[in-house]
Amino acid sequence: MTFVVGLTGGIGCGKSSASQCFVDLGIDVIDTDVIARMLTKPHGLAMSSIKNSFGETMIAADGSLDRGKMRNLIFLDNNYRVTLEKILHPLILTETLQQVKKARSPYIIIVIPLLFETGDYDKVIHRSLVVDCEEQQQILRTIKRSKLPEHQVKAIIATQVSRENRLKKADDIIVNNQNMAFLKEQVAQLHKKYISYS
Ligand SMILES: Nc1ncnc2c1ncn2[C@@H]1O[C@H](COP(=O)(O)OP(=O)(O)OP(=O)(O)O)[C@@H](O)[C@H]1O
């Protein structure tokens, strides 16, 4: 069985940046956010269930999920979040497991933003890796990249597991509080370690 590392971290902490560093080292990276987007494209596997549960109002003109509208809706009422997650999470897990089977690198990284929130991947991963930075930096990076307003970024952070708990649960931590070179250096060290485990 291939050695599997679950990479997580709060919004904007640098999960995509860190996972790109692993890709550059030849490692297969499976990104559950990419899978979620694939499932909610026009004709995506999740779209008929989303239409049944939420109606046409959540569907954009091209037939994909209207992510902005859905984001607003699930902030309004947590029941909507639960409904959406009940549709998406099993489909994401199934697709992830299929991609794990196809992966060929010495070990695999799965990017799972909600790794510690869901527990869905406890039996899939051998080790957890948290990409961490200070909350202020996290907020600035997220605003810069997503153009979401600060209050919405803070609201998203509040729905995620706390930084303290995430760090407690981490097997490995990337301290992403400097530049890209510092991030790459830490990924290179972890790469050596994971190769030795695989
Ligand atoms: N070490 C770094 N140096 C400079 N910029 C960085 C660094 N790490 C991340 N960033 C920038 O911060 C922003 C957020 O990073 P990234 O997209 O990797 O985070 P993420 O955790 O994947 O975010 P999300 O949870 O929203 O998907 C991006 O614009 C990225 O370029």
UniProtKB/TrEMBL annotation:
GO molecular function, one term: dephospho-CoA kinase activity
Record keywords: ATP-binding, Coenzyme A biosynthesis, Cytoplasm, Kinase, Nucleotide-binding, Transferase
Locations listed in the record: Cytoplasm
Domain of life: Bacteria
Catalytic reaction annotation: 3'-dephospho-CoA + ATP = ADP + CoA + H(+)
Protein name: Dephospho-CoA kinase
Known function: Catalyzes the phosphorylation of the 3'-hydroxyl group of dephosphocoenzyme A to form coenzyme A.
InterPro entries recorded: Depp_CoAkinase (IPR001977), P-loop_NTPase (IPR027417)
Any single GO BP term: coenzyme A biosynthetic process
Family to which this protein belongs: Belongs to the CoaE family.
Organism: Nitrosomonas supralitoralis
Main location: cytoplasm
EC number: 2.7.1.24
A Pfam family recorded for this sequence: CoaE
Leader sequence segment: none
Pathway: Cofactor biosynthesis; coenzyme A biosynthesis; CoA from (R)-pantothenate: step 5/5
NCBIfam families (alphabetical): dephospho-CoA kinase
GO cellular component terms listed in the entry, alphabetical order: cytoplasm
Binding sites annotated in the UniProt record for ATP: 12-17
